[in-house]
Structure formats: structure tokens, C-alpha cells
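Hi L.,

You mentioned the student needs an example of a multi-chain input paired with its predicted structure. This one should do, with 639 residues in total across all chains.
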Amino acid sequence: MTRAMPVPSVPGGRAPAETFGLSGRIGVEREGFSLDVALDVEPGEVVGVLGPNGAGKSTLLRAICGLVPLTHGRIMLGDAVLDDPEADVMMPVNRRGIGVVFQEYRLFEHVSVLDNVAFGPRSAGSSRAAARLVAHPWLDRLGLADLAQRKPSQLSGGQAQRVALARALACNPMALLLDEPLAALDASTRLEVRSELRDHLRDFAGPTIVVTHDAIDALVLADRIVVIEDGLITQQGQALEVARRPATDYVARLLGLNLLRGHAIDGEVTVDGGGLLHVADRSVFGGVLVAIRPNAILLHADRPDGSARNVWTGTVDGIEVIGDRVRVTVVGPPTVMVDVTSGAIAELHLARGDRVWLSAKATELEVYRG
Amino acid sequence: MSRRGRPITSPPRIVAIPAVIALLFLGLPIVGLLLRAPWSNLGAVLTSRTSLDALRLSLVTATAATMVAFVIGVPLAWMLARAQFPGRRLARALVTVPLVLPPVVGGIALLLAFGRRGIVGQYFESCCGVTLAFTTPGVVVAEAFVAMPFLIITVEGALRVLDARVEEAAATLGAGRLTIFRRVTLPLLAPALVAGGVLTFARALGEFGATITFAGNLPGVTQTLPLAVYVGLEGDPSEAVALSLILLAVSVGALVLLRDRWLRTGASA
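Structure written out for the whole complex:
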């Protein structure tokens, strides 16, 4: 594995000669904490690592990029060993060629946006001028050209996030790690930054790991989801698959999302397989995904006369108790999962085959290009 | 001002009396210095041979002592803040000793270490023919001994609160330890380096006890401004006052530089 002069893989038009998968078993033992996770990420694949706080998500990223040594296991990038405690091999952080976008971005406050992005090429030995030449196309690509001379303290959250991404990509990394890339953003910018980020990650040729505790981030950004709880993988698979069949209470609560594919025109989404949903966001057109949290849908015995703009009927197909909630599958169209309390089940006398009314507010439906 | 609107956390008015006394106590000596200064023949006194020699020697040695502090003190601060090694707590305590040690005692200690018969000084003498005691380099040694802790403590404190996470980010971008230090850590430390440097320079400039004990009081060779002031006081007090004015000006200058340039912007950044 060689790291020559960093060449921007997309802006310069030259793709990296070769891409490698990231694989291995990441074992980190610390007092009162242990992480043991086997991962295999293909080039071009985006894996979303989901888990509650303290599950070991950040430690996983820190181990892969070399900020935390493994205590057991092994990390490989293609054929190159990044860390192998048994063989006493540990490639230092700065030679791994793994780009990291940190949660708080960690930009260099003392230099301009341009020099933040030029930092990697400069560290690889380029002159200041040459490093800036490498940085410029990345600024253009991420829409930061106008901000090149700004200091990081003068940026909005979304802009800082893009600078952090540009800075990591300008090193022409072999793999990309993102730690809660959207957590520091407020809700309004989050939606936009999320879909931008997804487009950028799709253009990246190497393996990518995105750590998040937000289900929608994971579903939008990742091709595959790995759920970590208490340092161990509790579930993994295709995003939609994991969402449909949560294996643990945590996954059910967090990720048991209704994801409906459809076609949007002016705030109305025609769902594939039938049904029409109203969404608050009228700016998205064409093929979309609509996400509805199961607890955002209400069940009624009779037609509700509240203010919810989405009202439809369906037949109860399954009733499952997961932890302290009950998940009811209602065949529509559209078919959805609804989380209710056990008290509500008793009140509605719900049983399989019952006809029920469903309602959901338009503002509870998240819609994004899919 | 009426009682209404005075915050409950503001002190009772009686406290103003000792507070004013303290302020006068600190301020009156400066006023005295300014009032009694020989303003009419200030030029003549300050351009006398003794004064010019002392001023030049003070500036040269204080600058050299500050440079020494930067060259060896900053690495020590870096180690104390970030490296794990046995005896680190002891080392940190050792650094603060010159701050509390009476400078005269420091001078004697320096003699016993680096003097002609000192535990290390005797080898300097025999192997390299270097003598420190009672020479101009000796002045630099005395000043650095007393003043360097200011730089070390300032920089170490800044390093400890500096966000190491930014340095981690630099490592993931391909920067090695030295590159990180040079291109990330040092720029972020700049306010602390300037503050520590100014404190060190000011302390070195005013150094008296260790200098006179270790380096002596030879005009043109080891007689710095404070020493010249002391000598002047016994012969020509007006000269002593004039020379004191220079020291006062430099000290106040350092203070202003610290406050306006760095302390404020450093605190808000």
C-alpha cells in the first residue's frame, strides 16, 4: 500500500488506482468496558453503525483509525495490517490513510477553511501552494469556494461539517469514518446536510463507516446497518430488513421505522403498492422514501376527526410485545407498524383481523429523495 | 446610587475603605517615583556610561535568558503536560521551586552547581575552559534560573487545557508528532507563549538577588539595571531613580502588552 501525492479522486477526475475493503475483528478491553466487533466493509459500501450511548461506537472508530490500540483481534485494509496485537503490529494513525470526520468536526480554528482542507496534502509533503491547489477542487465540490478565506469560527454548523468532510477527502483516504456527522446540527439544516452527505458518500470509492445513534441518518446514509449494544453486534443487515425485523428492544425503539417508497408531487406521496400520504415538506419531488416512526401513528376504532391529515384504514395483521410496548402491524395500504402501549390494546380490544383506523400528522412524516 | 438596584452580591460600602488603602499602598510608591524623578537632567543621567552599559547588558541578558527558556523550557512544559514518565509530579514540583526560593539562595545554589568549584561547574572549567560565575553568560544563567518557571508553568497550563482532540484530527490527516506540534499545537499555544515569554522577560529584567550572588556586580560585564540602581542609591540617588524609571517603563510596557494583546483575546478565543 503506497500513499503517493494525494490526488483528489473526483474533482481532479482521477480515481484512486485501487480500492481496498476494510475488514477485521475489533477487540478493545478496558476497565469496565469491552468491545468485540467483526466488520467487513467493501469498497464503495457505506456501513452504518448504530447503537446507544456508551455502546462502543466511538471506540470502534478510534480503533480503526488508530487512536486506540486493539487489545485483541486484527484490522486489515486490503492486505495491509493496520493493527494486530498478537503480531505486535500497529500502524500509526498518520500512516493509515483513513479519513475521519469527527462529531465536533475538530477544525483548526487558527487557519482558514482553505488551509484546513490543505492540511492533509501539506502533511504529506506538498508545498503550501501545491497543497492549496489540491484543496481548491474539494472546496468547489462541497460548495465551499466562497468560504475559502473564512475562519472556522465564522461558519455555520452545516458549513463546518462540509469543511470537515472536504478536509478528510482531500487526503485521498483509503477509507472514510464518520462519527455522528449530523449530531451537531440543528433540525432544520440536518435534513439538507443529510442528503448532501449521502451524495458525497456515494461518490467515495473506498469503504465508509458512519457511526450514529439516529435511525434516519443510518437509513439514509448507509447501505447496511450494524447495531452495536454493550460492545457487541446485536443485529446487522440491509437497512430496510433491520427496520422491519428489529432483534432487540433498542433496535425496535430506534430503528423500527416505517419506510415507504413512493412518488412525491407537491407534498403528496403516492406510495408504491397503494395509498396516498401528505407530507409537510413540499420541496421534494420524484422518487422518495417516507419515514414514519411507529409511535407517530395513532390507532382508532372509528374514523378519527382530529386534525391529522393522513387518515386511512387497515386490518390488524400481527401484535407483538417488544419490551414495554406493543407493535401492531396493520395491512393498509399503506401497510405500517404502529407502536402502542399495552393499555391502548386493551382499550381498543385489538385482535388479529380487526379493522382499524390509522392517523398520522403530515409533520410527523419525514420525506427524502430515495 | 440608591440602595435599590445594587445587586446583593456587591460588597457592603464599608469594604471600600480597606480597598482604597490597598490601592493607595500599591500606587503611591509609583507616584513617588514619578514625582521625584530628575526630569530636568534625565537625559544626561540616562546617557551616562554606567546607565547605557547597564541598560544594554540588561536587555541582552534578559533576551538571552528568555530565549534559553523557550529552547529548553517549552520542551519541558510539553513533557510535563503530555508525557507519562516516572517522577513527573516531582519534576513539576521542582519547576516551581525557583518561584518561591529567595533569589539570593538561588544564586548560592547556582554557585554550588555551576560555580568554578561547583558540582558541574568544575568540569566545565577543566574540560571546556568555560566559566559561568561572574561572567555575562553567568547573568543569563541566573536570570534564566529564576525566570524560566514562568514560561514553563504558563505553557504547561495552556497545553493541559488545549483540546487534544484537534491534534488527533491532525494525526488522521497524516501529520506526525512533530508536524502536529509545529502546525497545530504551537499556533494554538501562541497566546500562552507570548504571555509566558513576556512574564519571563520581565522577571529576567528585574532579577537582582541571584544575579549579584552568582554573577557579581562588575560594571559593563555583570552589572544589570537593577544592580546599577542599587549601586546608584549609595552614590547618586537621582541616578537610581532615573534608572528605576526605565525598569518601570519596561515593566508597565510588558503588562500592557499582556493585557491588551493576549490576555483578553486569548481568553475569548
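You could point out the following to them. The mean pLDDT of chain A is 83. Chain A has two domains: 22-255, 261-369.

Best wishes,
N.
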